[in-house]
User: What shape does this take?
Amino acid sequence: MSSSQGLVNNKKTKFYRGDGNDFAEVFEQVAEITDWSGMGKSRKSIDTTTLEDDYTTVDEGGVITVAPLKLDALFDASNPLHQTVEDDIEGGLRNWQIEFANGQKRQFSALVTNFERMGKKDDKIRVSVTLDISGKPFNPEA
Assistant: This one.
């Protein structure tokens, strides 16, 4: 199979932080991601059951929620962006990008809601970061 079919190749998934510039925002790479999950979508249905109905009836119209993005990355204490991401837990919404191994990107606005260092004795230090997404993620190149 060829990589043109959207299969993951030897590139790594990368995580970027926006600089907050309203006119020409620049994204800097924070880290290569070792694991990630999230950005799924869900919504609640609206119960439209009446007293005359024998079964529950529902309708669309519930607000779509995007699941938080949880990611693990290697921590580099000499990289000032790693400390900046940790400090972002005290700030507001910020723009972020994730670039998947196949080159596709998603951009979104989110709050940092968790930043945790992890590691084992005599091993690399990793961080776990959770981003609570606001709005709809989109492809910045579309």
Notes: The CA atoms of residues 45 and 60 lie 5 Å apart.
